[in-house]
Amino acid sequence: MKYPSILQIGDCLISSEIFTEYFACDYGRCKGCCCVIGDSGAPLEECECEAIEKNYGEFSPMMSDAGKESVKKNGFFVTDSDGDLVTPLVPGSEECAYSRIEDGGNCFCTIERTWLAGKGDFRKPISCWLYPIRVSAVGGGMRALNLHRWEICKDAFAKGKREGIKVYQFLKEPIERYFGEEFYEEMCAAADLFKD
Q1: Distances in Å between the alpha carbon of 32 and those of 29, 42, 157?
Q2: What is the SS3 string spanning 112-169?
Q3: In 3-state terms, what secondary structure has residue 63?
Q4: What is the rounded distance in angstroms from the CA atom of residue 193 to the CA atom of residue 170?
Q5: Total domains, the chain
Q6: Alpha-carbon distance 108 to 137, whole Å?
Q7: Residue 49 sits in the same domain as residue 98
């Protein structure tokens, strides 16, 4: 191996795959199925639970009746089997309560669509926005940034490769939002270590 498998920037241990692998969402192929497939809702940070509750009145009109009923019954967030805070699911399905499926099977996040329309002050959970990067605590105040591979995103990996877009490049906006612009600049400088 010509480059390190893990690189440290600040308090983050970053997998080399974030620099070497390609990724670009291909919504035309997947139709947003990441919002409706999975064994749990989207991971949430505590501050995001408050943001969802605060903005609920803005995006709830777009939600499905089943999604609204789930929130009414379960609350704005739930704790999953791993003890993590996540978005609630529509009962009897894997669908996030905050998603909506349109005619033709296209799925969208009602929170983000409302934000894009200029309403509310919360775009969407950072775990969704940063995907396929998964952030986890590793102790001692350190965090790990790893690449998550999901079969439903195989077209996104293929599109990224076709278009020459690396994971960290595709996720520039959410990385800057979550970690800061300086952190992203350091990632770009570190990327030179991983050039073919």
Answers
A1: 9, 14, 15
A2: HHHHHCCCCCCCCCHHHHCCCEEEEEEECCEEEEEECCCHHHHHHHHHHHHHCCEHHH
A3: coil
A4: 18
A5: 2
A6: 29
A7: yes
Nearest to 96 by CA among 36, 27, 32, 45: 36
Same domain, 108 and 192: no
Residue 173 domain boundaries: 1-23+143-196
- Does the residue 163 lie in any domain? yes
d(CA 147, CA 95): 23
Cis, bond preceding 4 (omega within 30 deg of 0):
no
Sequential pLDDT tens for the chain (196 residues): 466 689 999 999 999 999 999 999 998 888 887 888 877 899 999 999 999 999 999 999 999 999 999 999 999 999 998 899 999 999 988 899 999 988 778 899 999 999 999 999 999 999 999 999 999 989 899 999 999 998 888 999 999 999 999 999 999 999 999 999 999 999 999 998 887 6
**Residue 136 belongs to some domain of the structure:** no
Give residue 145's identity as a one-letter amino acid code.
Answer: L
Domain boundary among 83, 98, 131: 131
- 42 plus 126 within the same structural domain: yes
Q: Global pTM?
A: 0.88
Domain check: are 126 and 38 in the same one?
yes
Amino acid at the residue 147: L
Give me 31's structure tokens: 């139709």
Tell me how far apart the terminal alpha carbons of the chain are, to the nearest angstrom: 11
